[in-house]
């Protein structure tokens, strides 16, 4: 029988807001998880995995998207594990309605389509799903898989919990680094790094940037290799500019978008007046492949700081080392704010390190990138 927490059993604070229930006596407020999958076996396995963590509880289970939406009206969830391929409206069709439910849950797409149907998964991520995890074949629900699943749920579900001390949205302004001194230096390259929740944020940011914007853009998004070609087409649609997968020896040209392949990091090298890319598989501190750090650190040297880095939503700290190198060389870093991030890990890390000159929503970051390039160009003409 599905365990859920009806609204009548929630405690209310003085301001009238509902507080999360507790998974165990004496525990911290629980992360409420809803499981939506048409397979009873999969729902049962996921339920057992979630309940094995004392910091989590089951808000409900459903065999269809329609059933999930009906339950979410009375049993809010912080994280929804969503299958895409189901009878009826299906997970993809229901995604906007799930995201719009009162608790505004984070959605983790857990579907057998995530490998063979990258189009469907990336469509879900661009619509606002935060992350994806492949549903394994029978026999693949191992302890390693459980650890990976619970880690993603924990990262996504912690967004709504207040951290120790002041809420992130109140302390963000103190992190902002003073603006760069060399404003007349037009960025030679814009470099964007993102992970969990980053695809949706990237789309919002790129749509604020005119197709006529001619500064080259490099993108490192944490994705499996099989997703990258579909992701490149998605980026082209978002910004109306050609997007290619980076490779060894590719020239970085005005108006071009280059995307890190899933198997390696983008490294930028200067060859006379030209900037070219190299793909590196060297280990990095973050353990990520592709990693944001080599991209930003190589721009610090190749462009002598004349580059602008943007760190969008993502788990972990990938990008901090490269951002430090770029800022030390005179470059600029922008970061997505906590309120609009699915996970304020990567952008939060560069913000807390005092490396971000601007902390804002993806839309504002896109406008700021346009303004920075335009202002620098105008200064050079005077």
Short description:
The chain is α/β, with parallel strands linked by helices and 382 residues long. Helices cover 34% and strands 20% of the residues. The N and C termini lie far apart (72 Å).
Write the layout of secondary structure elements.
Blueprint: E1 11-12, E2 18-19, E3 31-36, H1 40-51, E4 56-62, H2 65-72, E5 79-82, H3 90-99, E6 106-111, H4 113-116, H5 118-127, E7 131-134, H6 143-157, H7 168-171, E8 189-194, H8 198-206, E9 217-221, H9 228-239, E10 243-245, E11 250-251, E12 257-259, E13 265-271, E14 274-280, H10 292-302, E15 307-311, H11 320-328, E16 332-336, H12 346-352, E17 358-360, H13 362-381
Parallel strand pairs: 3-4, 3-5, 5-6, 6-7, 8-9, 8-15, 9-12, 10-12, 15-16, 16-17
Antiparallel strand pairs: 1-2, 11-14, 13-14
Helix pairs in contact: 2-3, 5-8, 8-13, 10-11
Could you characterize the architecture of this molecule?
The chain is an alpha/beta fold and 382 residues long. It folds into 2 domains: 7-160, 3-Layer(aba) Sandwich (Rossmann fold); 168-381, Methylesterase CheB, C-terminal domain (Rossmann fold, 3-Layer(aba) Sandwich). It is built from 13 helices and 17 strands. α1 links the parallel β3 and β4 (56-62). The longest helix is centred in the last third of the chain and has 20 residues, at 362-381. The protein is elongated, with a radius of gyration of 21 Å. The protein starts with 10 loop residues before the first strand and ends with a helix. The model is unreliable at 1-18 and 160-174 (pLDDT under 50).
Residue share in helix: 25-40%
Strand order of the largest sheet: 10-12-9-8-15-16-17
| Alpha carbon gap, first and last residue | 72 Å
**Which segments are poorly predicted (pLDDT under 50) over 5 or more consecutive residues?**
1-18, 160-174
Tally of contiguous helical segments: 13
- Under CATH at level 1, the class of the largest domain stands as Alpha Beta
CATH topology of the largest domain: Rossmann fold
Largest sheet: 7 strands, parallel
Can you tell me the number of structural domains? 2
The secondary-structure class comes to: alpha/beta
Whole-number radius of gyration? 21 Å
Please state roughly what percent of the residues sit in beta strands, choosing from under 5%, 5-15%, 15-25%, 25-35%, 35-45% or over 45%. Answer: 15-25%
Number of strands: 17
What is the average per-residue confidence, as pLDDT, rounded to a whole number? 86
Question: Could you give the order of the helices and strands?
Answer: EEEHEHEHEHHEHHEHEHEEEEEHEHEHEH
How does CATH name the architecture of the largest domain? 3-Layer(aba) Sandwich
Report the principal-axis shape: elongated
The CATH superfamily of the largest domain bears the name Methylesterase CheB, C-terminal domain
């Amino acid at each position: 029988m599905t365990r859920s927490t009806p609204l009548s059993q929630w405690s209310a604070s003085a301001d009238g807001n509902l507080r999360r229930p507790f998974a165990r006596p004496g525990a911290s407020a629980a992360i409420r998880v809803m499981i939506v999958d048409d397979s009873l076996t999969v729902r049962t396995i996921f339920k057992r995995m979630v309940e094995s963590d004392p910091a989590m509880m089951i808000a409900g289970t459903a065999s269809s998207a329609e059933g999930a939406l009906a339950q979410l009206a009375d049993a809010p969830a912080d994280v929804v594990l969503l299958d895409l391929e189901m009878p009826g409206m299906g997970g993809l069709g229901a995604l906007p309605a799930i995201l719009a439910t009162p608790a505004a849950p984070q959605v983790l797409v857990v579907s057998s389509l995530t490998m063979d149907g990258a189009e469907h998964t990336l469509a879900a991520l661009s619509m606002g799903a935060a992350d994806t995890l492949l549903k394994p074949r029978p026999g693949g629900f191992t302890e390693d898989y459980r650890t990976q699943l619970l880690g993603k749920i924990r990262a996504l579900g912690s967004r709504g919990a207040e951290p120790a001390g002041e809420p992130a949205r109140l302390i963000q302004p103190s992190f902002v680094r003073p603006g760069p001194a060399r404003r007349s230096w037009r960025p030679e390259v814009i470099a964007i790094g993102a992970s969990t929740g980053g695809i949706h944020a990237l789309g919002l940011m790129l749509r604020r940037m005119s197709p006529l914007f001619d500064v080259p853009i490099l993108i490192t998004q944490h994705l499996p290799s099989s997703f990258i070609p579909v992701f490149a087409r998605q980026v082209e649609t978002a910004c109306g500019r050609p997007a290619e997968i980076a490779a060894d020896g590719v020239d970085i040209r005005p108006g071009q978008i280059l995307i890190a392949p899933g198997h390696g990091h983008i490294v930028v090298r200067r060859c006379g007046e030209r900037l070219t890319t190299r793909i590196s598989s060297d280990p990095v501190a973050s353990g990520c492949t592709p990693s944001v750090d080599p991209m930003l650190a190589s721009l610090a040297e190749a462009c002598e700081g004349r580059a602008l880095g943007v760190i969008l939503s993502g788990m972990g700290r990938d990008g901090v080392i490269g951002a430090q190198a770029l800022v030390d060389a005179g470059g600029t870093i922008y970061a997505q704010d906590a309120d609009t991030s699915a996970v304020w890990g990567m952008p939060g890390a560069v913000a807390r390190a005092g490396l971000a000159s601007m902390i804002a929503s993806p839309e504002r970051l896109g406008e700021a990138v346009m303004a920075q390039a335009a202002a620098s160009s105008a200064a050079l003409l005077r």
